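Intended use. Records like the one below are meant for learning the mapping from a protein sequence to its folded structure. Do not use them to infer anything beyond what is encoded.
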Amino acid sequence: MDRRSFVRMAGASAAGIAGFGALSEGLPRAQDTPRSRIAALHSTSLQPAVGRVIPEVVLRLLDAGVSHVTGIEAADKAWAKLFVADDVVALKVNTSGGPLLSTSKTVVDAILQRLTGLGISRDNIVVYDRTDAMLQACGYQTNTGSGLKCGGVEGHWEGKTVSQGAFRGRLPVILGLCSAIVNVPILKDAAGAGVTISMKNHFGTISNPSQCHGNGCDPYIADVNALPEIRSKQRLIVCDATSACFEGGPGADPRYIWQPNTLLVGADPVALDTVGAAMIDEKRVQLGLPTLEAAGRKPKQLASAAARGVGTNDLAQIDLLKRSL
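Structure written out for the chain above:
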């Protein structure tokens, strides 16, 4: 697929591209949001049976999370703080764990409902991951025609190489076309990096993740998330922790999957991953397993990303709302 075809996949005309390339100064940016506010919202009714996630409960938790992140109590106004009708939005999901451990379509549908409720056209929303096959295996319907777009970015890279710290690689065409990113990861541990949550989810955004796994993916994860093309556009993170894994990740071993029935919502990827890593450690300790650090899998990317100003890994600086609804 050439660049022109991928532009069409993004639902943007040439005039539209020019329009969202010149957003007005008044539009919200990721750095304008309270980046240390994280909501960990749980409900026993979120998933009455494994894999059956209740849409109404997702919406309730999601709205409460966005209200906390923005500091605006009214949910409609809270969403309007982060997005506007002219936005072109890319949703980065995580399907690398297959059907047992992937971003829930119900969670994605709830985000889409709120975005379209702001007047954002479904033609201007793209759900993406690494490949079409990964998405399809997890129940996502790929589409490059009219309406909601969904597809893999593999092979659809910008011609130029970008550099940030230790990272050298290419980014997908869609990243240059969108005005906003919603990061929709899942909660899982990882053999090398310690955890795969919001920051490592963007290894599915870059052209060469296999070259970025040395030294526990450090400082590569931090440098990828410090890229201006990602950092300036990422407006919201909704971590799907309806199901999660505490061992054996980033794959999906049924022996190590549990159901936290939680959504983690934030705008600061470092803070959100810090809270998520603590959740995984808490589960590990409950089951008599060593902490990630004691197991030799300390998530070093948290400190590295904080040092680069991507966010905070200091729990004392994180305004954490932890609530069952």
